[in-house]
Input
Amino acid sequence: MRSKGAEDLDEYIEAFDEEVKLVKSRAEALENENGQLKRRLANFEHMKSYYQSSEDGVIAEPEEQELFPGEFSDVLVQAIKRYRDSSHPDGRVRDVLTSFIECNKETGKASHIENEIREILDSCDEMTSKERKALENIGFTITEDGKHYKLTFRGDDRYTFSMAKTGSDWRGMKNWVSDTTKRLFK
Output
């Protein structure tokens, strides 16, 4: 028979061994967590240095001027959506692009202007003073040039469009609207 003291000592050693296992397990978990945190910190430090080198954040502001408020943001979000939709459905690229889209909402201003142009010219074969005034209100400068109107969008001569003063057929105005809105908003 073993003495009561020996049994107590065995129980104490067994409890101590269990505690050592728990401490080792916890130490290993903390070392893994520490490694993960070090990697995250290195990533954040890299991002911090990147953002500090680019005053405007992830994407620098271009020299081009916006033709309407939110134009750059809308163009970028639309481009990111198209690229995201062509990326791998379960891939990292899709997740990153989705994150950008979620925190950069479209203003919808381009769609609004496009719809206004369509509504103004939808049911006419040629431009009257009513349509002219409505187009000027959304940013077109309109001048006459012989048998055509010359329409410049928001003062930028790169976006000048020629429109016949008299329509040759019922599709003429619809074609003009389609070509113009594609060039401005697509």
Summary: The chain has a mean pLDDT of 87. The chain is about 60% helix and 10% strand. Residues 125-185 form one domain.
